[in-house]
Amino acid sequence: MKRFTYILFLGVLFLIASCASYESKLRARVDAGEAEAQYQLASMYWEGKVVDRDPNESLKWYQRAAEHGHREAQVRLAELYERSEGISQNYEQPSQWYKKATEEGDIKSEIRLAQLYLKGQGVPQNYAEARKLLEQAAVKKNAEGQCLLGQIYWEGRGVTIDRVQAHKWFNLAAAQGHERAASMRQVVAIEMGPDQLIEAQRLAEEQSKGQ
Fold this sequence. Notes:
The protein is 76% helix and 0% strand.
């Protein structure tokens, strides 16, 4: 029993030393201005791993990493502001950081930014800009983007109501297992004639092959 306790004690000491060594090396990279290290430090403070949990320090380092072009930090910062997790809700901040992440090619940010444009949260309401962002996500086979694009055409938000286009995008999203899109596809189909359904199916197949 004493031997087991001694081994366990040594193991704990080794773990503490390893964590201290990791934190020391990480802070050296942070001091050198490395964005990935700043992002990791921010995550450590947010989760309370190795260091005591400190949302304010976490926010500071997410901000630094985001300013240095770290895409994951930009997305995380936008989410924190949007969800008011430990900070006051501010829709202008998430729109700015989602824009930055979108420029870095983040599809999730394209969709979130499009939703802010649809609602006019943090940015002027702009259906055309929302549709443009969703089209970018949709052609990359993002099911949520395809579903939201279908909804724009079905509701006629900034465009003439187009059930053929709506069915096409709902169909493509449903093919990827998007449940809401599958339900909306059925709703739209009830409002369509046989020729429209055939055309929508043809367009969906063309889009699928083109992707």
